[in-house]
Amino acid sequence: MKSRQNTATAQMAGEYLVAAQLCRMELIATTFSSHVQHYDVTAMDARGRHIALQVKTSRSDSWHLSMSHFCEVRFKGHKQIVGRPRRCPVPGLLFVFVRLASSKGKDQFFICDWSHLRKRIILNHKAFLARHRGVRPQNWKSLHTAVSTAMLQEIDRGWKFVTRSMK
Question: Is the entire prediction scored with pTM above 0.70?
Fold first, then answer.
């Protein structure tokens, strides 16, 4: 099992790597190291346009999130019922998923907007529940969901999407 310190240092590394890449793109980037609820990094260009980014970092091929951030979930007995999608907590919020590599310079980045990610997570969760007749196999109360590298490769918008999304 991962230690909290290992998880915290991985998350910090991901935030700093994202900030460094944004600076390479001639943007001003600031990290918040989990001190702001819905985002970890902000970036601003020379014209004053800005964007908030939520950074999720993993040393493996999956990232773990909670369904409750993306939609309402209620229970009918042990069955999970996926309800209405939640509103984006910060207008224009982007997600940057960082896969930390063991070798320097081999890290991977996947960028997508919050609403597109929400849509994919809900679709995947509904399909998962359908395969299990609405009941999660190990813990029916769990709202855990995982995002895989394969899914992120399908929805990755690339670094240029950050500047195109600034307001």
Answer: yes
